[in-house]
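REQUEST FORM: STRUCTURE PREDICTION
Request ID: SP-0412
Submitted by: Lab K.M.
Chain count: 1
Length (residues): 94
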Amino acid sequence: MIIAGDSKGQQGKVLVVEKAKEKAIVEGVNLVSKHTKPNAKSPQGGIVKKEAPVHISNLMVIDGTGKPSRITRKPDAKSEKLVRYSKKTGEVIK
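STATUS: Completed
RESULT:
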């Protein structure tokens, strides 16, 4: 879920995460118009709608209840590995 900016409140599936730039591309969110010249692939050319990257600080994970929630990491009781938890419900996020 987007929590800030022009696309605030919209939800979508994260397609790509760029760790170095701290940005993510979310499906159907933050659409921009890109003007393309005619070429072999699209002989007509025209305007194409495409997703632009969003800073990951403006994203929030949606937990199992369907509501946005902050996440934290804690060691799992059984395996001693770090696992992501929802702060709201305490459920493990996979």
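NOTES: The longest strand covers residues 31-36.
Reviewed by: T.R.
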